[in-house]
Amino acid sequence: MAHAERAVERIYEDESLTDEMMDDEAKVLLRWGENAVFELDSDEPDDETFDNRFKQMRKLMKRVNKFIGQRSSISDEEAQEMVAKFQSTAVDMGHDISAERLAQFMTAQKTMTNTEATQAMLALLQPPADEAEDSTDETEPAPPPLADTPGKSTEEKRNLLKSLIDFVSDDDNENDRNDSELWDKRV
User: Using alpha carbons only, what angle is made at residue 18 by residues 180 and 67, rounded to the nearest 5 degrees?
Assistant: First the structure.
């Protein structure tokens, strides 16, 4: 964990990771980054391995930052390109995001706030519901499937995505840390 503490400070100090976001969505991204840093360091990699992983993670965070910050002012084609780059970086990091899940996100994000879209975009990095069921206890509920939602109201779509976000966020609540000190350093 020697790498993690130094890296967490670096993500909170690096304004380029959140410079296109407002505070609420920036907090979501930084909290995800903090948790991801500890995962990157969990197998105690050598310096070079950790640095390469950390570089990829920062690249992914920059892609989220750029997409969230610009999504209201770009065309659908530009949004597709940005999210494709996000997916490519995620794959480089070992995350498998299916084209179907990406398409569902692209449709749903149009009706979300930036904070909700940030949470949903980061939720794409979690395994799909069927894979999550295989790796969880039977007592732990599986996240709801991201079913195709044609004909559903905006409120129904928002509730579906909120339940996915809440499922992913449940893990954060178990490991709540007082990150206000680190956030204060960033701001």
Answer: 135
Q: d(Cα 49, Cα 43) in Å, to the nearest integer?
A: 11
DSSP state of 74: S
Cα–Cα distance measured from residue 69 to residue 73, given in angstroms and rounded to the nearest whole number: 9
The dihedral region occupied by 44, where left means phi > 0, alpha psi between -120 and 50, and beta the remainder, is left
> How far is residue 68's CA from residue 82's CA, in Å, rounded to a whole number?
10
> Tokens 């002012």, residue?
73
Distance CA 50, CA 73 (A): 36
pLDDT in tens, the chain (187 residues): 678 889 999 999 999 999 999 999 999 999 999 999 999 888 888 999 999 999 999 999 999 999 999 999 999 999 999 999 999 999 999 999 999 999 999 999 999 999 999 999 999 999 876 654 454 444 434 444 444 444 545 665 566 565 555 544 544 444 444 444 444 444 4
Helix (H, G, I), strand (E, B) or coil at 53: helix
State pTM to two decimals: 0.71
